[in-house]
Structures are given as structure tokens and as C-alpha cells.
Write a structure and sequence with these properties.
A hairpin with a 2-residue loop joins strand 1 and strand 2. By secondary structure, the protein is mainly alpha-helical. Helix 4 (59-72) packs across helix 13 (300-332) and helix 5 crosses helix 25 (551-576). The chain has 26 helices and two strands.
Length: 607
């Protein structure tokens, strides 16, 4: 990629600005663990919301989104439901409120709050710590590999060198430099530095997104797009089959990619996405940066507002950029993509489009924006995991009386250790990649069932949580080792059922322990669900206690919230494609759903 002096200056100015801001705020995080990991619960919710959005604006996800929009057109708007992307709606409607009421620091500490200190609760506590640490190590290795490959595709300098007979490629040199710079302000400044720099990063990314969208809108017309794509490419709705045939289009080889993805039976895929999505969303956030932002807010109401803002600011600018790059690539990158032959790498669409279409200045801003996206996500993970080592292992089991200063110093060392270990995994990705994928995917495969029941079932115990996670781990591992070619979404019901079996067996292996702790959890958190016996006991002991009767309202708000979020995805796409009727309809839907959320959710938060 060719860069002008102006583009290089913009990227350098961004890096210097981030480091200066991070170090300037570092003193605020040195008081104690709460200051280091949660900002002392004094950060405004809107800063945390922008920070959370910045952490979700990752490079790899953006490259993937550009690729699938290129291939699937408007139907690609449904594919993020695989995760599901609307789990954030469940979070802001009610889960953030429930979680923040716990007044804990980490997801593992929340497990103790939920189940007490019995043997099963301790086993559950340990398995969550293992889950959190391994996930972060895997993501650091993943980010290390990803930022290296991305940097070599956009930066023009050869950074390879030999070190004591070991050859360091340009990709790894770039990755070491960028990860090292990010770690400097993250480790030094803790939560205050991470949030402040991520707010700045989000502003840069938003400006860059708008700039890319404007360039694409002025360079591409609807007629130009129609000439190169299948007839159904610009249609959102679908039947049992995908009904998207590229055979008579400008890119017939795209059909090979669709066949490899296994998404042709789109109706069945959609039903499974909804099924998985509901359970995965009820389970709540995994113990990562998203949960940390929730626990860092001042009040439960502000936790909900923070999660709402994350969705509110993320999708329209991001998809304005994604559709911009996709249509530029469809219309103008034909020769470059055809030159790849049968092995078209759709992840290269994004860097090729940046190099070919963005003018001087905007290219530098875009590169700074994607660098910000990486640094924000990387910093969020690096800042979240050490809390599990220091607070949930060292302070809980080794040295409960340790001073605040010692705990903060140990947190800094833990952060550095995790970064070094993650980068070591990244350096040996060829040999360790399978292990990392197995650990992270298998642990997550067992996460859903146990974490659904922990919110809604009174009888569920720490023992049941541990055995449910373990059964899910076994089922996911069997799938990973013996059926690696099966798409995860198609085997999810089997893994979920096996994990649920473990939850039930583990729960009934013993009488319910820590009954008083369960009552304290129910009284403080006030969840809805199957809490009959516990609810009766709490109400008998406290005549002023009012149980949660908001299940129907929360369910309605979730449906409204999913439609509201979907509108934010498709409006910029329809705008770029000049499908004005559809854009106006979805804009009206966005206004209506926003009004309903204001009346039925936002106005009810304080009460």
C-alpha cells in the first residue's frame, strides 16, 4: 500500500496521542483493585458505552463483514445472528441491571455471590476463572496473528529481521510493535486509561466510517452494482433456500464460497440461529470486557444505559463503511479478484479497497481508525483478565489480607504475563492454534446451559453449574476432535442438551446447599424465573420485598430491541443502494421502536 506523508503523519499522531492520554490518566488507577479494574465505579455510563462500542469494533470482524456483504448482499445482515449479535439487547433490557446489582468485580466473584462457598460453588468459581484466562490467552494470540497479517497488507515497510538465528517476519514485527504499544498504556493505566483512549478511538473510527461511506456513495451507482451481482443480492428476505446464484454474474466463483460456508439451507439455519441466540443471550455476557464495563458502572440503571448506548452508536456508522467498501469492491476490484483464481480471499477485499479508493488524508484516518479498533479490543481483553488471577485466585485463596498497593502491582505483573504468554502462543500459532481453538471453543460450548439456569432456576446449585460446564466441555471436545467439518450452529442443540443433562444431574446429586446465600442472591438481584420456594421464603421474612413481575414487559422490549437494532444495520445499506422506499420504511421502524423503548424501557429504569 502506498502512503503519503500526510497519511503517515496522521497514524503517528494517533499513536502518540493514545500513549500520552493513557499515561496521563494512569495515576487514577493506582489506588486499589476497584480503581484499576473498574475505574472505582466513578466513570460516566456514556464513556463506558462508547468504550464498549470501541472494543466491539474489531478489524477481523470488519473484514469478515465486508466479505459476507460482498457475497450474500442484504441477506448478510442476518448472519451476525450466529453469535448472536443481539445478545446486547438482552443485556440492556434486563441482564445488565441484574448483574450490576451484585456489586462484584468479576464474573467468577459473581459465581460466589450466586452459589456461596460450598464445594460445588468453589469448583464453579475455578472453572470460570479458567474459562476467562484461557479465553483471553486465545484472543491475544488471535489478535497477534490478525494484526500482523493486516499490517503487512496495508503498511509499505519491510520490518523483517533475524534475531539470534531466528527469522522474525514483517507480520510478527508489526504485531510486536503494536501489541507492545497497546500494552504500555493498558498495563500502566488500568481501566481509566483504557476507557479514555477507547472513547478517543471510537470518535476517530466513526469519522473514518462516515468518510468511507461518502466516498463510496459518490463513486458507485445502483446501476453499476446491479450489473455485477445476482438478481436477489439486494433482497433482505429469504425462503427455505438462500436463492442466490452467482453463475451469470461478474463473479461466478463466489458460488464456491457459498457452498463451502454451508449456508444454502438458509431457513433451517435461521431457525437454529434464533434457537441458539435466545439461550446464548439469556446466559449473559462471558467473563470478558463487556461484563467488566457493566460492573464498572455507578448504578444498575446506568449499567443498562451503558449497554444501550453501545448498540445505539455502533451499527449505523460501521455499516455505512462496510457497505461502502463492499460496493466499491464489487464495481472496481473485479480484475484483482479474478487474478486470485479459484482461491479468492474475500478478507483481502478490505485492504485492497482502502489502498485503491481512499484519498490522501482519509486513508491515514482509516488506517488510524482500524489501528484504534485493534488497540481498543486488545486493551479491553488485556485489562479484563488479570482481575480473575489477582482477585479470584490470589486474594481469595492465597493472601486475603494483601494490601491495595500489592494487589495493584500484582495486577500489572499479571497483565504483562498474560500479554507475553498470548504473544508466545501467537508466535507458535502453527503448532498451538488447534489447542487454542479446542480450549476456547470447547469451554464456550459448555457455557450456555449452565449460565441460563443460574439466572432463572432456584434449585440450580454450584455443583450443577460445574457438571453442566463439564458435560458441555466433553460434548464440544468430541465435536471438535471427531466432527470438525460440521458447522457449529447445526450441532448446538446436541451440545446444549448434553450440557443441560449435566446441570440437572449435578444439581440433584445433593440437597440444595447455601440456601441462605441463594435467598440473599434472589433478594438483591431480583430476577424473574422459576424461583417459587425461594420467593415465598424471602417474602415471608421481608414483608416489604416486591418480586420481579416484569417478564412479559422485558420479553416485549427484547423483541422491539432486536427490530430496533436490525433497522440500524439495514438503513445504511439501503441508503448506499439507493433503495429509498425500503430505507424510509426501516427509518420509520427505527423511529417507532425507539419511541417504544423510551416509553416501555428507558422511562422505567429508575424504578
Amino acid at each position: 500500500m502506498t502512503l503519503s506523508p500526510w497519511d503517515i503523519a496522521i497514524v503517528i499522531a494517533y499513536i502518540v496521542g493514545v500513549l500520552a492520554l493513557g499515561f496521563y490518566l494512569s495515576k487514577k488507577s493506582s489506588k486499589n483493585l476497584e480503581s484499576y479494574f473498574l475505574g472505582g465505579n466513578e466513570l460516566p455510563w456514556y464513556y463506558l458505552g462508547l468504550s464498549n462500542a470501541s472494543g466491539m469494533f474489531d478489524i477481523s470482524g470488519t473484514m469478515w463483514s465486508v466479505g459476507i456483504l460482498f457475497i450474500y448482499g442484504l441477506k448478510s445482515a442476518w448472519l451476525p445472528w450466529l453469535w448472536p449479535v443481539w445478545n446486547q439487547v438482552f443485556v440492556f433490557v434486563y441482564l445488565a441491571i441484574w448483574m450490576r446489582r451484585s456489586n462484584v468485580m468479576t464474573g467468577a466473584e459473581w459465581i460466589t455471590f450466586r452459589f456461596g462457598d460450598g464445594r460445588g460453588a468453589k469448583l464453579s468459581h475455578i472453572i470460570i476463572v479458567v474459562f476467562a484466562v484461557i479465553s483471553v490467552l486465545g484472543f491475544i494470540a488471535y489478535f497477534f496473528e490478525g494484526i500482523g497479517k493486516y499490517s503487512t497488507s496495508i503498511l509499505p515497510w519491510d520490518m523483517s529481521f533475524d534475531f539470534f538465528g531466528y527469522h522474525i517476519s514483517s507480520a510478527r514485527s508489526y504485531a510486536l510493535i503494536i501489541c507492545g504499544l497497546t500494552s504500555l498504556y493498558t498495563v500502566k493505566g488500568g481501566m481509566h486509561s483504557v476507557v479514555a483512549t477507547e472513547v478517543m478511538q471510537f470518535i476517530i473510527m466513526t469519522i473514518a466510517c462516515i468518510g468511507v461511506g461518502i466516498v463510496a456513495y459518490n463513486m458507485v451507482s445502483f446501476e453499476q452494482i446491479s450489473e455485477v451481482v445476482p438478481a436477489t443480492w439486494n433482497q433482505l428476505w429469504f425462503g427455505w433456500n438462500l436463492d442466490l446464484d452467482w453463475s451469470n454474474s461478474a463473479f461466478p466463483k463466489v458460488n464456491n464460497k457459498i457452498a463451502a460456508d454451508g449456508f444454502d439451507l438458509f431457513g433451517i439455519l435461521f431457525m437454529l440461529m434464533v434457537l441458539k441466540g435466545i439461550f446464548a443471550s439469556i446466559a449473559g455476557p462471558v467473563p470478558s470486557y463487556d461484563m467488566q464495563r457493566i460492573l464498572a458502572t455507578k448504578t444498575p440503571a446506568e449499567a443498562a444505559k451503558m449497554s444501550f448506548l453501545t448498540v445505539c452508536v455502533l451499527y449505523i456508522p460501521r455499516y455505512f463503511m462496510i457497505i461502502g467498501f463492499a460496493v466499491l469492491s464489487l464495481v472496481y476490484l473485479g480484475p484483482e479478484l479474478h487474478a486470485m483464481g479459484d482461491a479468492i480471499d474475500f478478507e483481502q477485499v478490505l485492504p485492497m479497497a482502502i489502498n485503491k479508493f481512499l484519498p490522501v488524508g482519509l486513508k491515514g484516518l482509516m488506517l488510524a481508525g482500524f489501528l484504534a479498533a485493534f488497540m481498543g479490543t486488545f486493551a479491553a481483553f488485556v485489562n479484563s483478565a488479570p482481575a480473575y488471577i489477582v482477585n479470584d485466585i490470589y486474594k481469595k485463596y492465597i493472601r486475603p489480607e494483601a494490601s491495595d498497593g500489592r494487589l495493584v502491582r500484582l495486577s500489572i505483573l499479571s497483565s504483562l504475563g498474560l500479554v507475553v504468554a498470548g504473544i508466545a502462543f501467537g508466535f507458535n500459532a502453527g503448532s498451538l492454534n488447534t489447542l487454542i481453538l479446542w480450549l476456547s471453543s470447547s469451554l464456550y460450548g459448555g457455557y450456555v446451559a449452565a449460565n441460563v439456569l443460574k439466572w432463572i432456576w432456584w434449585r440450580f446449585s454450584g455443583n450443577g453449574y460445574f457438571w453442566g460446564m463439564l458435560f458441555g466441555l466433553i460434548a464440544s471436545t468430541v465435536k471438535f476432535l471427531f466432527f470438525p467439518d460440521y458447522v457449529d450452529i447445526f450441532v448446538f442443540p446436541i451440545i446444549f442438551a448434553f450440557s443441560m443433562l449435566g446441570c440437572v444431574i449435578g444439581t440433584y446429586l445433593e440437597p440444595l446447599p447455601n440456601r441462605e446465600q441463594i435467598k440473599q442472591f434472589y433478594k438483591q438481584t431480583k430476577p424473574w424465573g422459576f424461583w417459587g420456594p425461594i420467593k415465598k421464603e424471602v417474602m415471608a421474612e421481608d414483608s416489604d420485598f416486591v418480586p420481579n413481575m416484569d417478564f412479559k414487559r422485558d420479553s416485549f422490549n427484547i423483541v422491539i430491541g432486536i427490530i430496533w437494532q436490525m433497522a440500524q444495520v439495514v438503513i445504511p445499506i439501503y441508503f448506499m443502494l439507493r433503495q429509498n422506499t425500503e430505507m424510509v420504511i426501516w427509518s420509520a421502524i427505527l423511529i417507532l421502536t425507539s419511541y417504544l423503548l423510551k416509553k416501555l424501557w428507558w422511562d422505567k429504569l429508575e424504578t
